[in-house]
Amino acid sequence: MRILIVGAGGREHALAWKIAQSPLVKELWAAPGNPGIARHARLLPVKVDDVEGLAGEARARSIDLVVVGPEGPLCAGLADRVARDGIPVFGPSAAAAEIEGSKAFAKEVMQAAGIPTAGHAVFDEPGAALAHARARGGRVAVKADGLAAGKGVVVCGTPEEAEAALRAMLVDRVHGRAGGRVVIEDRLSGPEASVIALCDGERVRLLPAAQDHKRAGDGDQGPNTGGMGAFSPTRNVPEAVAREVEERVLLPAVRELARRGRPFRGALYAGLMLTPEGLRVIEFNCRLGDPETQPILMRLQGDLVPALLAAARGDLSGVRLAVDPRPAVGVVLAAEGYPGRVTTGDVLRGAEEDFGEGVQVFQAGTARDAAGELVSAGGRVLTATALGEDLAAARARAYQALGRIRLRGGHYRKDIGVT
Fold this sequence. Notes:
This protein is of the alpha+beta class. The protein is built from twelve helices and 26 strands. Strands 3-2-1-4-5 form a five-stranded parallel beta sheet. It has a five-stranded antiparallel beta sheet with strand order 12-15-20-25-22. It has a four-stranded antiparallel beta sheet with strand order 6-9-7-8, with helices on both faces. The longest helix has 21 residues, at about 240-260.
């Protein structure tokens, strides 16, 4: 098979690493990729938002399967465009991807399907939004309706915090058009977890559950980020809870999307909060999570390619996923300034060493400079990921690997995997 991976982050590096192990793969390509992905695949200089360019490369190279990593090209219709050329795509159509592309639409789907979630209201006018938030004492989550690179959520505890969040989104437009409409949710409390499933439009196959750390600082302090690390499994999602998520969340969502003529084929991500009243869905994503994918794929045993192809073709009935019982932990190394204005172009030392069996460093925001040196090129630079006999051992191995990597101004949380 000839496979094309679309994306350039740590998630896509993990996918390339896993897919390259398949005996079915004859050629592996990535667009645009990164220097880490280049160790497993041939890179194509095509941006993820160039739908026609990506479709053209898939045709020209006789690609048998396109695996789309990020949400942007999915919401822009990449899967639809590639499918018109008869090429299977792991990733939903633009219509199905709206479950991430619009938080208001996701809430509509959840209500119609009876999926447990927080109470909410949708606003595009600042005054009405602020009145709603104040009526709840400011204890709300303010969410940009559209795609905001994982930074469009502000969890508020006071009316002043809610007002600042609403002003930033609806007035100052810090997220552009994505924040021109907001969803205000009643604030929930409890541990979070992520359950991701491969979907074929009708059936689902659960991947190992994971838990990520969104806040920039230790102890879940500081601003929200795209994710500072993740671990799998999580005690928050034992087998009974995983089955509840499958039956009460994922299958109802897939069936409701199919009922609306939007069959979902790809990876459906349910972000959950386990409240004292039971599980609640915080969000849906239309793709594999980042950084959850990194530890999840470390634990997934066997060949991933048949499962991806089966989902793309609409028949997961014969797919069974085997999971390594050992835990995995992934810790993100971020560039100076992240999640705000980041510094790039700093030399990255040690990231391409051999860290031994069960340890991988998945590159994300990296590039080569004119001299061929590996340098930082984004906010989240890499994820050091390790398996261990228990969670403590996996954490220790991931942090040991990270300790061998040098980046001026680089920073990371010290408590990833601490539950």
